[in-house]
């Protein structure tokens, strides 16, 4: 490529990276607002989340178009091609994080519209904070091209999974002890499940960051292998870290 073409390619690539980070910032706000609405039933927050979902969808379409144009106009080197492919895949996960946040907001609306008083009190704030940090950290890892931080996000998903299982156990207990809470407890299960899914999507994006920087596909290979690849260790994975086994 000529120098002019190189400069244009770099500008186009940076534009994709920048817009993806903007999209991530909108999704972060959606998660915070939807969770804040759970204990209060604040419908203003619910509407903010719904409006932000439209922004997320616009970002997704625009970034997809930008990537297609870059691939059509330029011949990316291996690492730049990995970046474009990684962002393309991460777009889907980021958009789905927004979808899950909107599901939480819609569930809140349903809970409070029916004026159901028997709402089980279960603390989801810690779980919400955990998935919020995961998303923030994966965006930071992406911006800084930091595979070590990305690997930490992969590990964090285990804690979110434990919190999800704990929340489910507590909600089942509520339903068994007081049948009046069953309808609302089911709504709370949907909210907790949406948070757990956001954690899953953040983990997926973290794995893509490792691929983008290191060229290593760490999906389905376990946490320890993700951490080893992020560090650049070249040891052969042991049996407990081979694909299909979660180390």
Automatic annotation (TrEMBL):
The residue ranges of the PhoU domain are 21-107, 124-209
Q: What is its main location?
A: cytoplasm
| Keywords per UniProt | Cytoplasm, Phosphate transport, Transport
From what superkingdom does this record's organism come?
A: Bacteria
Q: Which InterPro entries match?
A: PhoU, PhoU-like_sf, PhoU_dom
GO cellular component: a single term: cytoplasm
Any Gene Ontology biological process? intracellular phosphate ion homeostasis
Where does the record say this protein resides? Cytoplasm
State which residue ranges cross the membrane: none
Q: Give the region (Disordered) as residue ranges.
A: 222-247
- Compositionally biased tracts (Basic and acidic residues): 222-234
Q: What does this protein do?
A: Plays a role in the regulation of phosphate uptake.
Could you give the subunit structure recorded for this chain?
A: Homodimer.
- Family of this protein: Belongs to the PhoU family.
What's the protein name?
Answer: Phosphate-specific transport system accessory protein PhoU
Write down the species: Bordetella petrii (strain ATCC BAA-461 / DSM 12804 / CCUG 43448 / CIP 107267 / Se-1111R)
